[in-house]
Amino acid sequence: METAYLKKCFGNSLTQALAEVARVRPSDPIEYLAHWLYHYRDVTNAKEKEKQEELQLKEEYDKSLQEVKMTEMRKQEEYQTQQKCEKCHQVGGKNEAEVPGILKAPSTGQSTPRPPWACFSLTVAR
């Protein structure tokens, strides 16, 4: 039971610390051991914090890549939509009466182009 507790709390650090005390043979081994363990804890905490920051940076980087990809897809869709709309609005030498979408205003008889949203048909899924 005590062994499991010590392994859980200290892991391999206590073994390393005692080996260091035996190697250095300081005049006050208890104080040396205490400082070594505090330093070990600080280094371990710093490494864990660095690992968390790296993970967060990677997540942010992946998210920004996805946003860039979505932006490029939107730009491509917008370009394709614009091309379709321009193609739809080109009269190309045809008489206005022959082009569907050129509407005659009833009161004035002048032609008015159809609105850009009229170029596309919507399908509704049921």
Automatic annotation (TrEMBL):
- Identify the keywords attached in UniProt to this record, alphabetized: Coiled coil
Q: Has the keyword Coiled coil been applied to this entry? A: yes
Q: Which InterPro entries match?
A: Dpy-30_motif, DYDC-like_DD, Sdc1/DPY30
- Superkingdom: Eukaryota
What's any one GO cellular component for it?
Answer: Set1C/COMPASS complex
Membrane-spanning regions, if any?
none
Q: Which residues form a coiled coil?
A: 40-67
In terms of PANTHER family, this protein maps to: DPY30 DOMAIN-CONTAINING PROTEIN 2, DPY30-RELATED
UniProt similarity note: Belongs to the dpy-30 family.
Q: What is this protein called?
A: DPY30 domain-containing protein 2
